[in-house]
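Researcher: Please predict.
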Amino acid sequence: MSEDKTENKSEVARLLKQIDLAFEAAQLGISGLAEGAARHDFIKVKLEQVGVFEAQLATHVGIDEANRLVCEHYVLIIK
């Protein structure tokens, strides 16, 4: 495998891990003790981060695949 492909796979894996962490944090925000606007703002920020990571992911795998991967990870983490 060429170095470019290895770097690309590493970057895709890193972005997917960041997406998972943002979804996990949002999930904790949903089930956490905070209430009202602070809780909503926290979850909103985490989901906005997912959007940024998805855009970065799309530069490596294309927008359709990035969207599919984000949806797949969402379903796995947000229950």
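Model: Residues 9 and 21 are 18 Å apart (CA to CA).
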